[in-house]
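writing this on my phone so excuse typos. first protein, seq and then structure
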Amino acid sequence: MGRDGRAGALYYAHAVSNGARFLGVAVVKLNAGALAAMAGQSQAWVSDANGVIIHATDPALLHRALPSSRVGRLDPAQLRQRYAREHFDSITLAPWDEAMPAVARISGAPVPSVLATRPLSDGSLTVTVPRPLPALQYQGMRASGCSC
């Protein structure tokens, strides 16, 4: 995230050396547009290692924290330095049914979604792709006795 709190970039850095001699640092910047292309789906979101959603097509999800994420355990100075803010609202992922743990309602949405989540191997980013399942919404209404 940029220092101004807006969509920013993710930086990767790696030391370059020749044996024991330090030569410098190689740095790569991955901007938010590239993250969107990696996600490849309009409903996907990308979260950082602290559980902050750093890319989402849905503006209601952008810059929000995932439930039980590490960002809630960072002190205010760390939050200011990393995100230029001290507070993050969280999204809710309410389980739809105990028998289907991968299906949830996202922040109170009426339609449940199955969530496919995959972290990068280094843990720096996680991509989540929700797939809405409107048929389950109506099954839930029938199961609860609603004659809608």
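second protein below, same order as before
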Amino acid sequence: MFQRPIATRTKTLVLVTAWIALALAACSRRGGTEYFPQARIGSRFEYSVAYSAAGSGAHKARMVSSVTGRATVNGQRYYKIVSVFSGLPGLGEQIQYLRWTREGVYEADAAGKDPPEYLDTPFPISIGSTWLAQSPGGRTRYKAMGTETVTVGGRTYRNCLKLAFAQQLPDGVNQGTSYSAPNIGMVMLMLHTDNGVDMTFTLDKYKR
């Protein structure tokens, strides 16, 4: 079975769970925000995960992300998104806190007491937009590449926003591509880590 140190594997999936959280998130009337649809408590997204590394072969896992309620962090009201993994040894649930303003989506990491927030996704977003998200654990550079049709989980999603990203962490760089469908959120994410791990997340079903 594929094994990595728990701390390293957790860092790799921080970006993933942040994107899933945004898939359960809010939408304003400004450009591009239809790819981050309105949060509803009780929303649930289920993903198949395929991952591999040199010499380990291919493996399968699952991730379920849900909006479980609201929370107050440093005086601000956030949506609480919980992601639970199965088939990834040593990885427990991941929690994000997100809130939306006209300027964009802010995140506060769940780790630690009174975590600082940062702007993860600025509005508006248009094709060619680039931005840098600086979190306590590293920084991620994004670029909106265009729109494409994506078929996953037996469904076809049209006009999906394609984002390329590079995540700089203390122990390396992760790169990948995500696809988000209008009024649904993320339907597919492909991630490659600098230590040779490849992961693909595909949406199986969702409840809004």
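Residues 6-23 form the longest helix (18 residues). thats all i got for now
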